[in-house]
Amino acid sequence: MSSSSIMDRLAILADAAKYDASCASSGTARRNSLGGKGIGSTEGMGICHAYAPDGRCISLLKILLTNHCIFDCHYCVNRKSSNTRRARFTPQEVADLTISFYRRNYIEGLFLSSGIVKSSNHTMEQMVECARILREEHEFRGYIHLKTIPEADAELVHRAGLFADRVSINVELPTDRGLARLAPDKDARQIEGAMNRTSTDIAAARDSRRRFRHAPRFAPAGQSTQMIVGADRASDADIVHRASGLYTQFGLRRVYYSAFSPIPDASAVLPLKRPPLVREHRLYQSDWLIRFYGFRAAEVAEATDDKGNLPLDIDPKLAWALKFRETFPLDVNRAPRELLYRVPGLGVTAVDRIVAARRHRTLRLEDVARLTVSLAKVRPFICTADWRPTRLTDRADLRSLLAPRAEQLELFAA
């Protein structure tokens, strides 16, 4: 086909891929082409972690193989009943586009997903062939992320992991009820079964690499998944518990959250407007608390309101601290690291600095100020050698004092 036809299809399929948030490029194996063989790199100036303002990675060529689909998921713009322009690439065209864009320094890797055309197995074969052409014919050593299809044969999904740096399977919705209602062609147990097989393959490959130096790699950057927020009635507590279970069961590298976005010709079962984007942000913050701050999903859920949703005006850690004020204040000179992680305003780096500094001297409030970003947020919840918050921690208006102030943004501000 002509180049104009290629660009027309690229415009359609790149736009159709924008709803998938799980395209970060971290955690893969180090590869480069410095020895004169192959093309591309995943280190140094290879995968640069460039993100758009909404948090999505922009360093990858992010496209669908096709937006034709035999499934009819209500929330998907590419569902079979949707009135949208359709397009399709061949595996060779995707490989050629990736190499062409890489040589022009437009991208550092490929994120490839697809609608289901003909059958799950046929589509998965086409996606694997894209990765095979890049790896074997072009010796491409850059980053490849493949969105695998849980309904496809296990052997095809396994082959995808042999070529890709990361693989992912979307659980789509937080609850089985929501999935059955909005995606009748998908099965929650089938999705979990595919994730479990991939998790087992990743663990087996890592074990083989420890024993045999030249054992094949399998998805060295692990697997991830994505949940749509706000398309069904699932609360933030439901979502947090679901994400925590996925991390525990399948050892996922990341769970991504994507706020539901209204689509053209939407089904009547969908909400008429998208949820506040800050809700997605609060879920990412809660995810961070579970992964890096030692919070359990049940503890994060305790910070929600009577409907099970996190507050939008303050972050989840502050919400939890305000609800359990009896835990505070904590003495920064004596409190264990695990409790200091629960102080609003103290991140992992700040806690590391405090623990290291208190080995050499008794910390005062001015010392904490030098070690943290926002002392105002920290002060009500800590004690130092020269500071006790006394009644500040129990003030009825403490939330209003610590909540970020709403500001009217200027359209043409510099």
Automatic annotation (TrEMBL):
Its cofactor is [4Fe-4S] cluster. SUPFAM superfamilies: Radical SAM enzymes, RuvA domain 2-like. CDD domains: Radical_SAM (cd01335). Residues 59-286 form the Elp3/MiaA/NifB-like radical SAM core domain. Keywords: Iron, Iron-sulfur, Metal-binding, S-adenosyl-L-methionine. It comes from the Bacteria. InterPro entries: Aldolase_TIM, DNA_rSAM_put, Elp3/MiaA/NifB-like_rSAM, Endo/Exo/Phosphatase_dom_1, rSAM, rSAM_sf, RuvA_2-like. Pfam families: Radical_SAM (PF04055). This is DNA modification/repair radical SAM protein.
